[in-house]
């Protein structure tokens, strides 16, 4: 009887340990957050992105336009770099694939809201931000020769 009770207790403890071990899982990767059926989400965008420059430009200006973008989970952002070597901070919101930013402090180029459409590519490592106007939303790049400039960012873990 004692032997049977001891076996039952051992089996119960083993089952409990096994159940607890199964519940533990790794948090989703950046790619998993971005490539879900939900489309582009805030969760996918939050983090640090390397600014590669304006996609339509090649040459010296592009070579000197590197920068960084941090999108925070409290709806704030900070951007530094770009061809104009700006430093700007503000708020961001996402509605579907449309990103709206409001520059609040730093080199805000007149401030105000800017919006852009977003695409994610290359297994979620590339973010393209296509301006809905003449001026790029984060880097403030503006040229008469490029309508709706596309800022290209790479995920920076």
Topology, element by element:
Elements: H1 2-23, H2 30-34, H3 42-45, E1 47-54, H4 60-63, E2 67-71, E3 76-81, E4 86-95, E5 98-106, E6 113-121, E7 126-131, E8 150-155
Antiparallel strand pairs: 1-2, 1-8, 2-3, 3-4, 4-5, 5-6, 6-7, 7-8
Strand content of the residues, in percent?
A: 35-45%
Structure annotation, total helices: 4
What is the CATH fold-level name of the largest domain?
Answer: Lipocalin
Number of domains: 2
Main beta-sheet annotation? 8 strands, antiparallel, barrel
Mean pLDDT: 82
CATH architecture of the largest domain: Beta Barrel
Element pattern in H and E: HHHEHEEEEEEE
- Using only C-alpha atoms, the radius of gyration works out to 23 Å
How far apart lie the N and C ends? 58 Å
Overall geometry: globular
Give start-end ranges of low-pLDDT stretches. Answer: none
Fraction of residues in helices? 10-25%
Task: Please give a quick description of this structure.
With 157 residues, the protein is an alpha+beta fold. 22% of the residues lie in helices and 38% in strands.
Task: State the main characteristics.
single chain, 2 domains, Lipocalin, alpha+beta, 157 residues
């Amino acid at each position: 009887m004692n032997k049977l009770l001891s076996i039952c207790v051992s089996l119960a403890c083993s089952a409990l340990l096994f159940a607890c071990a199964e519940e533990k899982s790794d948090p989703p990767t950046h790619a998993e957050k971005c490539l879900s059926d939900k489309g582009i989400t805030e969760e996918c965008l939050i983090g640090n992105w390397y600014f590669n420059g304006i996609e339509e430009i090649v040459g010296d200006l592009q070579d000197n336009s590197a920068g960084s973008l941090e999108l925070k989970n409290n709806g704030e952002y900070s951007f530094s770099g770009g061809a104009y070597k700006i430093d700007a901070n503000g708020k961001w919101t996402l509605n579907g694939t449309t990103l709206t930013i409001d520059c609040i402090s730093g080199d805000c180029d007149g401030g105000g809201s800017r919006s852009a459409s977003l695409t994610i590519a290359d297994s979620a490592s590339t973010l393209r931000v296509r301006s809905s106007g003449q001026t790029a939303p984060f880097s403030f790049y503006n040229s008469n020769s490029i309508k709706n400039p596309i800022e290209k960012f790479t995920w920076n873990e």
